[in-house]
Predict the structure.
Amino acid sequence: MKKKENRYKYYDVTPNKVIYGVQAIDRCLACSDDDWRVDYLGAPTVNLSNLWLDIESYANTTGFFTENSEALLKRVIELASDKGDWILDFFLGSGTTAAVAHKIQRKYIGVEVGSYFDDKALLRLKKVLAGETVGISKEIGWAGGGAFKYIYLESYEDALNNIEFNEAAGQTALKFDDYLLSYMLDWETRESPTRLNLQQLASPFAYKLKITRQQEITNQAVDIPETFAYLLGLDVSTRRVYDDNGRRYLVYRGALDHREVVVVWRDTAKWEQKDYERDKTFVAAQKIAEGADDVFVNGDSLIPGARSLDGVFKSRMFAPMGGMRGAN
């Protein structure tokens, strides 16, 4: 073994040399039989075996007890993919896979159910965007940049916490058998937030659900516009905010089944006829719907060619898997 910085290089290997309990090696793993020298950090033309002694397997940049090293994930990802390919990690953990994928220009999806997500993977990816210098950053000249989305999925327990009966229906449901209880859940709770209360779509930026985090139930805002974009299957090209003298608009534009689609969100609570007229004028002046094949708006509108997204949203929320393409 040589200097500390070369602790993963091995020299002067002989057939009788014991390495990790393996004796009587038949041939050198990655060199000619003449010099019996193993140097995994040598020239690029040297073949790499499946014994990777030149890189560390684990790291400790986040304090996560099974954190893989970025060098290891970089090698795995580069061997199995090209720039722009999708990388999927079902057990995101400390976020090494996503961090490396982001740095070497791969698209990625990570899934994590642990309560440590906010403090580990999420925090780490934010640091990646800010240009952190750990891991492979110096090697590849990483300077930060890019973007990512993260989504909290509603849990079964959260759904139960958000079921609301009207008072009369709730008392009745307690007295019936399972069949009628199922009926009550389908119909008498249909205005519950977790079932998508269409009336609350009039204020889409204030939609909230009761969410349990660390054994505490809190009211948290739900990103209704983003949820609809996912359910619709919209390939989003732009997401833009407009302001009409204090009236906020959030407009998505993208493609769906080879059609240009625009989705317009605004707060229509307590609107009157004059408000809808103003809405129509503003959308036309800003050319928000220009060039679109389909225009969706939350609630009612006087915008020419636009249709309400409310019914589509509701049907997509509870549509069977596999039957969700198209905007009908």
The first strand starts at residue 86 and ends at 89. The radius of gyration is 28 Å. Residues 158 and 211 are 6 Å apart (CA to CA). The longest helix spans residues 273-285.
